[in-house]
What we know:
With 232 residues, chain A is an alpha/beta fold. Chain A is 19% helix and 28% strand. Chain A is built from 6 helices and 11 strands.
Amino acid sequence: MINKVCPLDGLMALVRPGDRLMVGGFGVPGTPFALLDALLKSGVGDLTLVKNEANEDHMGVSKLLEAGLVSRMITTHLGLNKTAIGMMNRGEVEIEFYPQGILAEKIRAGGSGLKGILTDIGLDTELLRATKRIINMDGHEVILEPALTADVAFVHAAKADRFGNLIYAKSAMNFNPIMATASRLVIAEAEQIVETGQLNPEHIHTPGAFVDHVVELGDLSDEYGVLKSHVL
Amino acid sequence: MSYKEKIAARAAREIRDGQVVNFGIGIPTLIPRFLPQNHEVYVHSENGFLGMGEPCARGKEDRNLIDAGGAYVTLVPGASFFDSSLSFSLVRGGRLDLAFLGALEVSATGDLANWIIPGKYAPGIGGAMELAQKARRLIITTNHTDRKGNSKVLQNCTLPLTAKACVDLIITELAVMEPTPHGLILREIAGETEVEEVIACSDAELIISENDLVRF
Lengths: 232, 216
């Protein structure tokens, strides 16, 4: 019997100093806050973090940054996190920005066993060109973007079964399904775990073959809730 | 109506029934409230859905449903969710009919700079570069001048570009202008301004071909 469901205790021993860690989420939806808190407690450092954004000040991955556990971050936009921007400006964390869909596509390529992608996004800005491999394809310039993989991925799902099939909720999907394909070790936290066979096969977003461990979340902490600062 | 609402109201008139549209942060987020009720328009949200509706009423928020700026929103009938890869397939693949973005600088030939002021402002790229380069039509909604009174409508951009020759129309509180390979054509001016003021507030040379400009 396959059972990937396991307790959170001890799981963070699988994350090593210097690891590259992909973290799902776009804002609060889809951010695996419980896994991030466990990692913060374990104190594993020198991480390279891959996440769309750095959450907001003192939330989610921002806590890892603020604790000095992240040496480098691969991301798309930090606009909602003044703490992270301050750390970047002071050189306390190295930040690598990508256009959002290009970051997604680098991850998708990595998860699909491809070596990279070819794109024309960013050819018009000298700042980006200076850091890119530009090749000639049939008389046109294109940027060669290497695929991106990671040692570990943390994802958040609404539902899972013991095989590791995952279903995401609404805009909490975002980077989670592609990150779940692109890492050597994939740890999912799920709001609800059901017996294998109870999820409708047509509704599964991430097949269990991609997932190594599933942690069941009990009562959700306040971080998962509605952010008062964004309410009308 | 504030000057931002005035810009948004004029911008809303560029949206056709049945279009797939993306609204960037800032002034573009005000545009939907000026859309005609009978328009069926599908709004794309970069964080992974199509069919964004009104901002969510207080107390009704769904913790799993935000726009790309973090605001709680609603859905319209026919909405769909997808991952971040597919979200930008829609943009880069040519299925986004129209995008509205803000600008730091925009040029007479339609170059756009809106993502970085080196050494001062560098929050990242987000979806801006792909929206600018790949939306089938790109409209810039912005103040005509910055806080210091410097024109944002330039002959040539000075900041690092988001994309070259990508802008189809510029809408400010003073004017509607169309960048072309031959320069910037003044199309309309605001009801409470004069051509002289638009010229004075623009660093770009304006091509004025009509004697009687449309007012908005």
